[in-house]
Hints:
By secondary structure, the protein is an alpha+beta fold. 31% of the residues lie in helices and 32% in strands. The structure holds coenzyme A (COA).
Amino acid sequence: MITIRRAKPADAAEIAAVHITAWRSAYPGILPADYLAGLSFSSHAAQYESAIRDGVAVHVAVWGSPGRIVGFASAVRSRRRALAEGEIETLYVLDDFRDKGAGRQLLAASAGFLTTLTCRSAFAWVLRENQARWFYERMGAKLVAEETLRFAGVDLMQCAYLWPDLTVLRPQARA
Length: 175
Ligand SMILES: CC(C)(COP(=O)(O)OP(=O)(O)OC[C@H]1O[C@@H](n2cnc3c(N)ncnc32)[C@H](O)[C@@H]1OP(=O)(O)O)[C@@H](O)C(=O)NCCC(=O)NCCS
């Protein structure tokens, strides 16, 4: 069974491991192979530990007992207020734990957190070539913007998916 809880600083190493594993699974052919190979576990762990200590709302999906972190999401006030009030900054689930509802539950927890910040809307950036964009559509988000992003030495197209009303992500709102 998967449960969702707010992350603690001590979770940072496991979160970094999920981050890097998910990137290496989702982004071959999209991001350069040498960039993916060079992702640093220690620097990601340090970044997540510092973000959690600073109060960034990271939620983790935990499988089994005593519990292994198999996915996570983070949410912040929007860095692009013209798009929405809140932003889903990250959302990653390990391949072996997909299609079990973890992504939906992490999104709901992130939306709940944004609501406590009085955000009524939220968006997420998704690379256009990432299959995950269809997940966001399934979760009720609408494509509202596309723009070019220079990242890891390549030009990428990223899509902004918007939830104009975050209440659609409440657990009881499931279609
Ligand atoms: C996208 C991601 C977070 C989805 O997580 P998940 O735990 O597999 O999703 P869930 O099991 O909660 O799925 C919820 C619903 O979305 C659907 N869904 C999941 N991934 C989908 C996809 N890629 N395309 C279409 N529908 C998808 C599920 O079938 C399910 O449908 P239902 O409403 O009929 O039950 C996960 O696949 C992932 O981490 N992908 C790789 C990393 C990534 O690209 N993250 C996003 C970066 S922007």
